[in-house]
Amino acid sequence: MTTSTRGVDRTPAVLVLEDGRTFRGRAYGAVGATFGEAVFSTGMTGYQETLTDPSYHRQVVVMTAPHVGNTGVNDEDMESKKIWVSGYVVRDPARVPSNWRSTRSLDDELAAQGVVGISGIDTRALTRHLRERGAMRVGIFSGHALPDEGTMLAEVRQAPEMSGADLSAEVATTETYVVPAIGEKKYTVAAVDLGIKGMTPHRMAERGIEVHVLPATATVEDVYAVEPDGVFFSNGPGDPSTADHPVAVMRGVLERGTPLFGICFGNQILGRALGFGTFKLKYGHRGINQPVQDRTTGKVEVTAHNHGFAVDAPLERVSDTPYGRAEVSHVCLNDNVVEGLQLLDRPAFSVQYHPEAAAGPHDAAYLFDRFVKLMEGQRA
Amino acid sequence: MPKRTDIQSVLVIGSGPIVIGQAAEFDYSGTQACRVLKAEGLRVILVNSNPATIMTDPEIADATYVEPITPEFVEKIIAKERPDALLPTLGGQTALNTAISMHDQGVLEKYGVELIGANVEAINKGEDRDLFKGVVEEVRKKIGHGESARSYICHSMDDVLKGVDALGGYPVVVRPSFTMGGAGSGFAHDEEELRRIAGQGLTLSPTTEVLLEESILGWKEYELELMRDKHDNVVVVCSIENFDPMGVHTGDSITVAPAMTLTDREYQVLRDVGIAIIREVGVDTGGCNIQFAVNPEDGRVIVIEMNPRVSRSSALASKATGFPIAKIAAKLAVGYTLDEIPNDITQETPASFEPTLDYVVVKAPRFAFEKFPQADSTLTTTMKSVGEAMAIGRNFTEAFQKALRSLEKKGSQFTFVGEPGDKAELLREAVRPTDGRINLVMQAIRAGATPEEVFAYTKIDPWFVDQLFLIKEIADELAAAPELTADLLAEAKRHGFSDQQVGEIRGLREDVVREVRHALGIRPVYKTVDTCAAEFAARTPYFYSSYDEETEVAPREKPAVIILGSGPNRIGQGIEFDYSCVHASFALSDAGYETVMVNCNPETVSTDYDTSDRLYFEPLTLEDVLEIVHAEQQAGPVAGVVVQLGGQTPLGLSQALKDNGVPVVGTSPEAIHAAEDRGAFGRVLAEAGLPAPKHGTATTFAEAKGIADEIGYPVLVRPSYVLGGRGMEIVYDETRLEAYIAESTEISPSRPVLVDRFLDDAIEIDVDALYDGEELYLGGVMEHIEEAGIHSGDSACALPPITLGGFDIKRLRASTEGIAKGVGVRGLINIQFALAGDILYVLEANPRASRTVPFTSKATAVPLAKAAARISLGATIAELRAEGLLPATGDGGELPLDAPISVKEAVMPWSRFRDIHGRGVDTVLGPEMRSTGEVMGIDSVFGTAYAKSQAGAYGPLPTKGRAFISVANRDKRSMIFPARELVAHGFELMATSGTAEVLKRNGINATVVRKQSEGPGPNGEKTIVQLIHDGGVDLIVNTPYGTGGRLDGYDIRTAAVARSVPCLTTVQALAAAVQGIDALNHGDVGVRSLQEHAEFLTAARD
């Protein structure tokens, strides 16, 4: 433990939204300027997992929990090799981290990775603004010589929008790698990396699955080259309406009838592959407290979410698709957004949320078991 | 899955009197539950012996029984009402234990009553230490996490001694099974401590069982609040982290929500374990609380315990998150599932989610060690606090400093001026957890302690330690700054500094700081507690202040009335005042006002967001209240601020609020002064021609001596402006008077000591009345059972008075009117009289709602607090009579002759405290109030009502057996008749030699027993103390001998407490008890609901 002096960094910082609202605070992490889509996350734990989740690529994340950084940063809770958020907004950053696993402070980690942040602003006011007006572009500017507000606003408005952004290739692995099964190997899964989180292959590995993580650009041939028992499509950033390549690959998998599982972006891709549309939610679901109902059992699970887009599928009836009958398997009880899809005639399903958790509750871990069951069924 | 249709009526058991460990939070949860069940169309039958509760208001349930919560009485209620179901999980340990014993006795089966909310097996699994260990083991097998502390179950002292060896030596934790609030548990560092703690624990445990455990002192402590529905959906409502590490009962710890120092991985482990436990235990529906210890070195998780019911922590969690656990538990119990219940606050999302917070909640305990100077103030695993304050802020420092000032206790806020003291000594002292340790830690930091040192001595988590350093650094900056700039002041406010603290540091008056702050435009904003961190719009205006940017207070049209609550429960100011505030809110809402409640006590109905139109969860200091008034004045018209109903806390703000231009309604600050200032009040009495005991005021010993010499000893001395008789003492001689003045630290010319002649042998009378400037409504006249000199809050009393006639009532009415008029009361006034030698003396007047308002209201079936609130805002008694809020004619002084008698009895916390040697504290009543709660007994005759009050407070009076009598000389005459009656009822009398002699001369046989001081006899004859400990005594009568009390009496009374033997310490109580025993021995004692009672009174009035 070290004594830190208060407010080491009183460097000013400004957050400017594309509709002109500004918040003045202090620099946090790296000093400089950054742009992205402003979104808020309501999780009270798990900032390290959030920061390293590739789905947050090009987003400026506003933490609604006021204290961030209390447990520092460790080497085990990373969901990928780096921090992906383009900017970070917190109210009260920790001065001293306290946890037996902590190896460094979050502030230092953000600075080391060049992530520009802002602290000391009314994050609740900002969250309410985003809730009412919807997610929008934002810029964070920090340093002692800041441009005037007009200039900053103009820069924010020049930044690219999230709608129409094709980002998977920017975050996914470029080389295939293998996550070995823990214990006895039972199955092989080809996982298409659209921005995969480290916990996802780990959850599969725990169940005896050897996971071959393939680049986002992988073709159907690449997928089948690993002789998979099942195919997985991961989470990832960007607008699903641009993801034509993964949709085509998925159709190839559906045609062959290989057991298929998708998470988050993977759910949107299944939606598209089945012929459903996708749309951008006003301010998205980002948190670890979201009630989702499994419509097959009626049970409610508390789940981790991080999605700004959703699938537009009918809730009340079974749909006919090129791959047979499909239905909405899971729904968010807060707003009736589609949270899961399943085919009734082929072994394929997906969820919009994060059963791998990290961060978040483990209530939905059973979905990995369902995937295993599908593969088991296919073998029998 | 919709509501069950096979249940039409349900019996809800309340928690009884307020005691340490089981307080007003159960009124909050019980009230919520009853309302929900009633709204669902069920017939709700309620039993609760505590009249000072909202839940026992006749409109909350369909049939309300203010009867003792004992299996015997609850069975009578079941036999009469024949409910379909019994909901035992909302009335604390009392309700749960009662339900279990009724199940075990076959009563539930006999009457076909289904236990809902929890099944017996689950209750046993959760509460029985051995079974619960098995649960934790099962969970570990299933999910690979969670374990119990290594432990050893004991049923005898031999087991206990063996257990220590098995665990590898001292220290060990001792935990008795099935006790509430951790009663009887503690740390034993050696064999002597072990024998004492475990010996008492074996006695306290209804199953004669204690658990010895490995010590996990200094580990991090967490709690989770969970809910489960019958469809096996489980949610974690809240996580709570204890600021004080393991070793201090969570009720005595400063606690923080949400948990601050867990990574997601660690938090999810606790969540997984918690969910697996609630499933394994088999809590079908409802809430439970699970406590964990986490090793800060390696994250090892130990499950400490679970409560398969609504608890103090769940009340806190409900207030902290906006998720009403009790209300939802009640809905789940009648068949709903979580996803079918809407979230009240968003109204659009379901309850099957987990609240997320964008603020920090801090709870701080309020202690009353000053009332028990003998008691050991070390905090242990036995809960000792009497109340708590909760504060909400947008960061820890803000919430924390707000919580400390909410405690309203001298020295509870951090101070940064003066010499901090010696660092090494401060650190050494900080090792021992006590009330106010946190202030000691801050002084150690000021004295130069490093964070490492603070952690090493206290084991407070380094993140929290850093927050203390942050506060201290800001204080330093404030002190060092050449001027108070906007930036600096805003920064200090952002971290919770009060204007008073800033002023102290800068050498400025508080009001000057406030002026500067306002001039700089620095004011708090108000944020909403919304369960979802602003993800969805909140429909419920539940606010807290923060020095942030954007306020969420919406404009309104209707005129608002701001009601100031009573703050943390403490002895002398408890739930009774909350009752009055809640009533005011209801009445004023009905009268068309928008009601705004301000309070900081999470254990109350007033801080339920359902109670008022708007709720501000804020400290009750002048600064905080002024800012709320300002915010509400910005939002719309404010008709006034009500200060009369929340006890001394808001009353004390009255003048300052008025000086700041706030419209204080009801009795004016000047009138309050006229009642509270001795000189002014003396003039009021003189003008009305009313006598008061001779008295004077003194600021020095010489002055006090002069007064005492003139009026004669004994004298009653006390500081002015106090509640609950704080510091009050009967002084019999000059030596003690000198010592008293020397010990009183707060004497000053503006705070003199009052010296009154003490009226020996007087009958004390309490009157609650309403006055509107024209008409007096005498609410009720209460005759105390104990004589004057026992604090009215600790004395039992009867209404209607049992020995006063029409002439006395007439005199009381005239005197009350004279005082109310002379003082200038608009609303409630409480006056204490003493009838001595046929002279009616006025002892004191309180121009506010008194502690007895709920009791009087229930006994007379008239809502006095509601009427008072209306009068404050201009209604007249005549109008209220016409409206039907008050009876059309007559008042509480004119009850029919056949009206039932209501008896109020005080409940004392003796068994909670031990001195530093581990001995009990003395139980003698005196002028300083020490009771924590009260019960009410109602029946057609006094004896039965008194017997019920005793059964409700301490357990049933014995109807036969052995009675031990030892009284002071002055009591010997009045003891003879009741003693004879005891013999007539078949009691065998035992007495010390002096008392036995007197009895014998009067023809009453009594066995002489040895005093403790005499030691055992030559043939092994036991002393009285040994006899009590051996269970050979069923009733004890022991009145103290003059001042101080001799060791013998002390040993007898503490033994009585330890063995739970009824112990009467005044002869008046003995006389009443004899009437009670007589009633119990003659015929069946029935039960009658308050609704039936009210019907009878109303019919009699018409």
Automatic annotation (TrEMBL), chain A:
One GO process term, biological-process aspect: 'de novo' UMP biosynthetic process
PANTHER family named in the record: CARBAMOYL-PHOSPHATE SYNTHASE SMALL CHAIN, MULTIFUNCTIONAL TRYPTOPHAN BIOSYNTHESIS PROTEIN-RELATED
Broadest EC class assigned to this enzyme: ligase
Enzyme Commission number(s) of this protein: 6.3.5.5
Region (CPSase) residue spans: 1-187
Pathway connected to this protein: Amino-acid biosynthesis; L-arginine biosynthesis; carbamoyl phosphate from bicarbonate: step 1/1; Pyrimidine metabolism; UMP biosynthesis via de novo pathway; (S)-dihydroorotate from bicarbonate: step 1/3
Gene3D superfamilies to which the protein is assigned, alphabetical: 3.40.50.880, Carbamoyl-phosphate synthase small subunit, N-terminal domain
Quaternary structure annotation from Swiss-Prot or TrEMBL: Composed of two chains; the small (or glutamine) chain promotes the hydrolysis of glutamine to ammonia, which is used by the large (or ammonia) chain to synthesize carbamoyl phosphate. Tetramer of heterodimers (alpha,beta)4.
Organism: Streptomyces parvulus
Source taxonomy: Bacteria, Bacillati, Actinomycetota, Actinomycetes, Kitasatosporales
Active site: C264 (nucleophile), H354, E356
Residues given in the record as L-glutamine binding sites: S55, G236, G238, F265, Q268, N306, G308, F309
Pfam families attached to this UniProt entry: CPSase_sm_chain, GATase
The name this protein goes by in its record: Carbamoyl phosphate synthase small chain
TrEMBL record, chain B:
Gene3D superfamilies: 3.40.50.20, ATP-grasp fold, A domain (3.30.1490.20), ATP-grasp fold, B domain (3.30.470.20), Carbamoyl-phosphate synthetase, large subunit oligomerisation domain (1.10.1030.10), Methylglyoxal synthase-like domain (3.40.50.1380)
Region described as Allosteric domain: 955-1102
GO biological process: 'de novo' UMP biosynthetic process; glutamine metabolic process; L-arginine biosynthetic process
Note on cofactor: Binds 4 Mg(2+) or Mn(2+) ions per subunit.
Residues the record lists as binding ATP 2: R718, R757, L759, E764, G789, I790, H791, S792, Q832, E844
Binding-site list for Mn(2+) 4: E844, N846
Catalysed reaction, written as an equation: hydrogencarbonate + NH4(+) + 2 ATP = carbamoyl phosphate + 2 ADP + phosphate + 2 H(+); hydrogencarbonate + L-glutamine + 2 ATP + H2O = carbamoyl phosphate + L-glutamate + 2 ADP + phosphate + 2 H(+)
Pathway: Pyrimidine metabolism; UMP biosynthesis via de novo pathway; (S)-dihydroorotate from bicarbonate: step 1/3; Amino-acid biosynthesis; L-arginine biosynthesis; carbamoyl phosphate from bicarbonate: step 1/1
Region named Carboxyphosphate synthetic domain: 1-408
InterPro entries: ATP-grasp, ATP_grasp_subdomain_1, CarbamoylP_synth_lsu_oligo_sf, CPAse_ATP-bd, CPSase_dom, CPSase_lsu, CPSase_lsu_oligo, CPSase_preATP-grasp
GO CC aspect terms: cytoplasm
GO MF term list: ATP binding; carbamoyl-phosphate synthase (ammonia) activity; carbamoyl-phosphate synthase (glutamine-hydrolyzing) activity; metal ion binding
EC primary class: ligase
Binding residue positions for Mn(2+) 3: Q832, E844
Cofactor: Mn(2+); Mg(2+)
Record note on quaternary structure: Composed of two chains; the small (or glutamine) chain promotes the hydrolysis of glutamine to ammonia, which is used by the large (or ammonia) chain to synthesize carbamoyl phosphate. Tetramer of heterodimers (alpha,beta)4.
UniProt record similarity statement: Belongs to the CarB family.
Function: Large subunit of the glutamine-dependent carbamoyl phosphate synthetase (CPSase). CPSase catalyzes the formation of carbamoyl phosphate from the ammonia moiety of glutamine, carbonate, and phosphate donated by ATP, constituting the first step of 2 biosynthetic pathways, one leading to arginine and/or urea and the other to pyrimidine nucleotides.
Domain comment quoted from the record: The large subunit is composed of 2 ATP-grasp domains that are involved in binding the 2 ATP molecules needed for carbamoyl phosphate synthesis. The N-terminal ATP-grasp domain (referred to as the carboxyphosphate synthetic component) catalyzes the ATP-dependent phosphorylation of hydrogencarbonate to carboxyphosphate and the subsequent nucleophilic attack by ammonia to form a carbamate intermediate.
Name of the featured protein: Carbamoyl phosphate synthase large chain
Species in which this protein is naturally found: Streptomyces parvulus
